[in-house]
């Protein structure tokens, strides 16, 4: 009976993550720059089931302050509900990045898993605002699109459909994300800087690798382990200096 009760508690907690309602504005936690006038904005997008505190607890905020004390860091509570009701891009832009971007010389997005997908679709929609992204094991959309890229022989050889011909909103968004990412294979000089990494045993290693193989040395890392913070913490530490270090 105790095992059954425990299982019910776990299932209830998972349901809560799915059922969290969205709010306007999107909640966010500011970690202000620790030195001088901030010239860099770093926006942290959480993975599924995580929240703003997870970035702090795992040393990400501390590492950013170490490499760039002139960075303002904002951890947003962009939970699954915003993706489910398709308001993530609008809320992130209208409530967080849009009103602030003009104050900074550099704007970066950091995303893990689901948050990595959020960073991609936001940057695709507002690429003029984003200098770069740090993505760790980003979710890459539906298996159907990933299989298409694989069968084509890679991102550089894939011929995508016209997104305007795709009726389903979710499917169209996945295709638009991959068309944007194809820029790293075909037009890298036009793309925001990208640092990408994942665990060797992560279930997302294949689609992540489709993009990673076109990135410059040092901007694509594969480390032992799976889809967990024990992989992402040291990986972020490797990326932080080259990506976010004070200019």
What this model shows, in words?
The structure is a single chain. The protein is 46% helix and 16% strand. It has 247 residues and is α/β, with parallel strands linked by helices. It has one domain (2-244): Alpha/Beta hydrolase fold, catalytic domain (Rossmann fold, 3-Layer(aba) Sandwich). It has a seven-stranded mixed β-sheet with strand order 1-3-2-4-5-6-7, with helices on both faces. The chain is globular. Residues 1-17 have low confidence and may be disordered.
Q: Given the helix and strand composition, which structural class is it?
A: alpha/beta
Question: How many beta strands in the DSSP annotation?
Answer: 7
The fraction of residues in strands falls at 15-25%
For this structure, the CATH topology is Rossmann fold
CATH homologous superfamily descriptor: Alpha/Beta hydrolase fold, catalytic domain
Report mean pLDDT, rounded to a whole number: 93
Count helical runs.
11
Q: Taking strands numbered 1, 2, ... along the chain, how are they ordered across the largest sheet?
A: 1-3-2-4-5-6-7
């Amino acid at each position: 009976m105790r095992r059954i009760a425990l299982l019910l508690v776990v299932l209830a907690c998972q349901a809560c993550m799915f059922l969290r309602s969205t709010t306007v504005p999107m909640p966010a936690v500011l970690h202000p720059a620790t030195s001088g006038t901030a010239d860099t904005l770093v926006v942290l997008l959480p993975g599924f089931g995580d929240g703003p505190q997870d970035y702090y607890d795992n040393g990400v905020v501390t590492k950013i302050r170490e490499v760039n004390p002139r960075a303002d860091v904002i951890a947003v509570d962009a939970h699954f509900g915003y993706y489910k009701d398709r308001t993530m891009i609008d809320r992130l832009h209208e409530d967080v990045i849009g009103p602030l971007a003009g104050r900074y010389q550099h704007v970066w997005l950091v995303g893990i898993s689901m948050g990595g997908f959020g960073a991609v679709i936001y940057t695709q929609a507002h690429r003029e605002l984003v200098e770069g992204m740090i993505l760790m094991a980003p979710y890459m959309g539906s298996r159907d699109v990933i299989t298409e890229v694989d069968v084509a022989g890679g991102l550089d050889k894939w011929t995508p459909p016209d997104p305007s011909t795709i009726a389903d909103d979710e499917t169209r968004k996945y295709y638009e994300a991959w068309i944007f990412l194809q820029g790293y294979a075909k037009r890298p000089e036009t793309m925001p800087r990208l640092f990408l990494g994942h665990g060797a045993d992560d279930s997302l290693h294949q689609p992540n690798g489709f993009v990673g193989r076109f990135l410059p040395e040092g901007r694509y890392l594969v480390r032992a382990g799976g889809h967990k913070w024990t992989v992402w913490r040291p990986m972020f530490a490797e990326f932080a200096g080259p990506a976010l270090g004070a200019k």
